[in-house]
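User: Earlier you gave me the apo prediction for this protein. Now I'd like the version with calcium ion bound, so I can compare the two side by side. Same sequence as before, with the ligand SMILES added.
Assistant: Got it. Here's the input I'm using:
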Amino acid sequence: MRSETSVFSHSVGSLVYLAVFSATSCGVGEAVIEFTDDQPDTVAAFDAGVALDAGVGRDASVAFDAGPAFDAGTPVDAGSPFDAGAGPERDAGAELDAGVVADAGADAGNTSSSFDAGAPDAGPVARQVVVCLTGAVDQSSPSNAGFTQLCDQLGASVTLVRSCRGSACASSFATFPATSAGATVTDATFAALDLNQDQRVNAADGPTTLTILGFSWGGVNAGDLAERLSSDGRIAHAQLRMRLVILDAYQPFVSGVSPAANVDEAWSFRHTVTPSSDCSSGAPLGPYRGVRLRCAAGRACFDHDFSAAPNTTFGALPGRFVGHCEVPQAAAPFVTQLVRTGSVTAPPPLVAVTP
Ligand SMILES: [Ca+2]
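And here is the structure of the complex with calcium ion:
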């Protein structure tokens, strides 16, 4: 029997992970956590610092060469119209009034991702608000490093809803092990939208685009946050464009994410084929692969698959090497471009979206 002391001192956060999986599969109150000598791999797998560590079982120099990946595409420039100092009154001009056209990347085999978002050609430019929901276990987990970097970068140029405890703030919210977004992130997001603090989100707050961005565990909960805001009677959705972006969204026993009724556009960037060195291969119920978007015909839903372009390089990474932990890094240029312009250029191929 492995010493409980060593297990607990080594993997407290991971034990929570195991508990929630057990609770989900067995029913709350019936979860049993037991480590024995014939389960050494299980113990190791639940140590988030091991199981989802980019440095384990892969060529870290390739997989996490984050520089080129985050330099690719169109990074948000502090001097751009998205200057962090600019409020809703800023004049972003035509750059932000781009409509929403997903540019099908010919080299990635993407042929059908254009749509008319109905964005006006004139009038005030929407304020950009972004809220990030990180994966399990929390912001300190190595597996979330790429996502944290993406949200940090976005926070330099848009209104980012931050997760704060006292004066310490993070660029993303940790919702694990809950299977819903919860009140904290919902309330913080509403507060960011309610510019004049009258407990309503409407014309008085100005046109706004909210991007709800989630990775892995947080990707599924991002869908829940969209649901909560979609049905919030205090929000006039005519003035609020809601964009849901999920990055390899995953929770056990969840087969897809269905964007709520008031989600105007939904995007997914994920992988469907597990690389041999995937960070989640040894994790419970792993390897993790992002669940699909579930959308009725006619909705603006775009489900992009890095695995479908195995030889196309995304940042520094060929599609075939994009595993669960690499999705945020590989998707970062597209997410950044999406927030900045409302469109993406040469994204990974589309997966057909069905209900
Ligand atoms: Ca208001």
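For your comparison, keep in mind: The pocket of calcium ion is lined by residues 194, 196, 198, 200-201, 204-205 (CB under 6 Å).
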